[in-house]
Every structure is written in C-alpha cells, then in structure tokens.
Amino acid sequence: MLVWLLERIRDLFYALLVGLATPLIWGAFRLSVKGRPASRGLVVAPHRSYWDIPILCVAFGPFRRIVFLARHGLLRNPAFAPFVWGFAVVINREEFGPRDFRKTMRAAKRARWIGIFPEGTTRPGAKPKPGAIRFAELLNLPFIPVRIVPHGNYPPRPRWRFPKVEVRIGQPFTVEDLAQGLPQDLPKPERYRVLSQRLMERLLSL
Question: Which contacts qualify for 59-62: CB closer than 8 Å, 24 or more apart?
Fold first, then answer.
C-alpha cells in the first residue's frame, strides 16, 4: 500500500512538472511531435543534450510518465539529484549487480514507459553500449524508438537561441526483430555489439 501511494505521488508531481514545462518547451523549441507512443515499452533515443529528457517528457505528455534509467554519477550534480531520486531508477552502469537488477525489475512492474539512451552519454561520436539490448531482454519489453530532430544548433548555442525541434516516435519493435539474420553461434559480446549498432541505425533512420 505504501509503495502504491508513493508511486501515485510521483505520478502527480511528474504530471505537475511536465505540465508546467510544456508551454516553455513548446514555446522555446517550437516543438512538433509525429507519431504516438505504444502503450508500454522501453523508450530509446539518441542522446545529444540534457534537453533530451524534458523534451521527451513533454512529447509523451504529463500522464505518460517515463521512468528513466540513470547512471549513479548524476547524483553528484546538485541540480539533477532531486529529479534523479524522484523520477528515475539509479543504477551502477559499470558494475551492474543484483541490487541494480532488483531495482530495474521493480521499475518494469510499476512503470509503463522506461527511458534509456543507448550511448549513455551526450558526448558526440560515442558508440552505443549494450545496456539497452540487455534491458530489453531482461524486462521483456519492446523498444519504442524516438528521434529528436533539431533544426539548428542543438544543444542551443548561444544559450538563449533555441532551434526548432521535431520529435519522431516510431513503431515498436523487439530484440528479435533486430536479431533477424544473425548467426546463431555468434559470440555474446559480438551479438550485443551488432544489435546495439542495429538499434542506433533504426533510431537514426526515423
């Protein structure tokens, strides 16, 4: 009962924050959204800026709460820490252990949408990590592909000039869809590398 109540409180605060942010994000980025998210899944998108998170939340709407998987290091940033604790699942990405496993499984049971960025960083040119594939297998969830398409400098440079942004939400697909045509005897590290690359290619083709 207590867990249920805490989740409803988080839902309420999430809806309130996203509702307050919606006119700001729509106005600043002249946002447009194409497509509708599936009713449940792993929301995946290329990661280019810390603006990605509020843009995704606004694009999905205040009543489609996305629970993001966040790396532990974000808690060191005092600006992000309250939001990470309140609206994300904090995991140790480098040493994913039983405790992280239990937290992700609990998140999957209570959340309809879980967000993860395959590269795990906003650094340009970063290669996708296998975490998104592993989580999709672990949680038995389809991918909901999303691409944030800016028309101008993104992240905004200079800071007060915001580009027009289009959010494209694609049709869901599964790890099995990505794995079509792969040899059955492919070593696991190579399989994850290829699947991660195929995932990014699908996202960038939206």
Answer: 59/31, 59/33, 59/146, 59/167, 59/169, 60/113, 61/18, 62/14, 62/15, 62/16, 62/18, 62/19, 62/22
